[in-house]
Amino acid sequence: MSEKEVKSCLLCGVGGQGTVLASRIIAAAAMAKGLRAKTAETIGMAQRGGSVVSHVRIGETIASPTIPLGTADVMIGFEPGEAAANIKYLKEDGVLIVSSKQVKPVTASLGQSAYDGDECLAWLKNKVRRCIVINPDEIIEACGSPKVLNVAMTGALAETGAMGLRIEDMEEALKRRMKPKLIEMNSKALHMGAQCAGER
């Protein structure tokens, strides 16, 4: 990464999916490499069930922590509908990493909107040239916890190389941020996410 180059990653999901923690892991991995990183969050109407969007920008000269529309190098969608709603941030040749698992948003639960996660996925695959779909059920079953999806998504991010971060960088960031008893499980999720991205 050149001194003036800025790499941007937008993460979006619903409350409770670990979107903010994932952004912190990415930023920590970058800073451990001696790079500057800025993050910002927009949290929706409910801590659990509302929309959550996190911005991560890495580089030497970062004018703003928020990503301008159409400039994100990578977008990580923890939920298909949230990915579709925020696709405007992704640049034309950007990378989309999206979970295939639908999580019904608060508005749909209240009967305010109809929502079909499969339709959103199909639309995203058609719209984005480089779209990596992650099946979270396989990873969750192998790791034994539903809380590892966010870490798996950062593993997929590292595998793409789009942010200039390696799987080893993510692993070191994990070790610094997590309790020792959780590291083995999360490291497994990290590598499974990377493997999924590599296969696609």
Quick structural overview:
The protein is an alpha/beta fold and 200 residues long. Helices cover 44% and strands 23% of the residues. The chain has a 6-stranded mixed sheet, sandwiched between helices.
Q: What is the element layout, followed by pairings?
A:
Elements: E1 6-14, H1 19-32, E2 37-43, E3 51-59, E4 72-77, H2 80-86, E5 90-99, H3 106-109, H4 117-127, E6 130-134, H5 136-143, H6 149-160, H7 167-177, H8 180-199
Parallel strand pairs: 1-4, 4-5, 5-6
Antiparallel strand pairs: 1-3, 2-3
Helix pairs in contact: 1-6, 1-7, 2-4, 5-8, 6-8, 7-8
Structural account:
- With 200 residues, the chain is an alpha/beta fold.
- It has one domain (6-102, 114-199): 3-Layer(aba) Sandwich (Pyruvate-ferredoxin Oxidoreductase, domain 3).
- It is built from eight helices and six strands; from the N terminus they run βαβββαβααβαααα.
- Strands 2-3-1-4-5-6 form a six-stranded mixed beta sheet, sandwiched between helices.
- A hairpin with a 7-residue loop joins strand 2 (37-43) and strand 3 (51-59).
- Helix 7 packs antiparallel against helix 8.
